[in-house]
């Protein structure tokens, strides 16, 4: 069984991996707020457990065994977030820290029952895919709202970089998953967008916000 610290490393590697499945150790250090010597030491430890492929001065990658273990940690986190929102009435901005604690419970049966209770959801409250008990995920094709063009009609389907402050900002704007949006205009200077949200009065959103909203065509 992996320690809580090891699980946090695995989850970070899972989320930071690029299209080749690689993570720069310096990026990992910055993401976790942990000094490089400690990160290097942990990579050697995880390598000994055959959870990562690690060589000095080279990017690190999860092995197939490591990917599955990391995905199962992510599964526990995202199922917990879904339960807190769907069954307990928490706001999507309130659930991350609670799920961070519950994800380390070592009881597959508990999370399998949670999954069943929720009706086997494929996505969490922020639109991120929930791995199944084999570590596999259903992935959808998204694009950033910032990549859309004037006149595009889309549905807001996921949020990235989901800080509490950002989610509260979206709450204040009445923005939620499943909301239909139409791009009315795009400001050439800074790429801010005027967007009609759910047929309401058009709202201006900055490029920073649009970069963090993922959408699908209607």
TrEMBL record:
Keywords: Activator, Cytoplasm, DNA-binding, Manganese, Repressor, Transcription, Transcription regulation. Residues 1-63 form the HTH dtxR-type domain. Its main location: cytoplasm. Transmembrane segments: none annotated. Gene3D superfamilies: 2.30.30.90, Iron dependent repressor, metal binding and dimerisation domain, Winged helix-like DNA-binding domain superfamily/Winged helix DNA-binding domain. InterPro entries: DtxR_MntR_Metal-Reg (IPR050536), Fe-transptr_FeoA-like (IPR007167), Fe_dep_repressor (IPR001367), Fe_dep_repressor_sf (IPR036421), FeoA_core_dom (IPR038157), HTH_DTXR (IPR022687), Iron_dep_repressor (IPR022689), WH-like_DNA-bd_sf (IPR036388). It is found in: Cytoplasm. Homodimer. PANTHER family: IRON (METAL) DEPENDENT REPRESSOR, DTXR FAMILY (PTHR33238), TRANSCRIPTIONAL REGULATOR MNTR (PTHR33238:SF11). This is Transcriptional regulator MntR. It comes from Belliella marina. The lineage of its organism: Bacteria, Pseudomonadati, Bacteroidota, Cytophagia, Cytophagales.
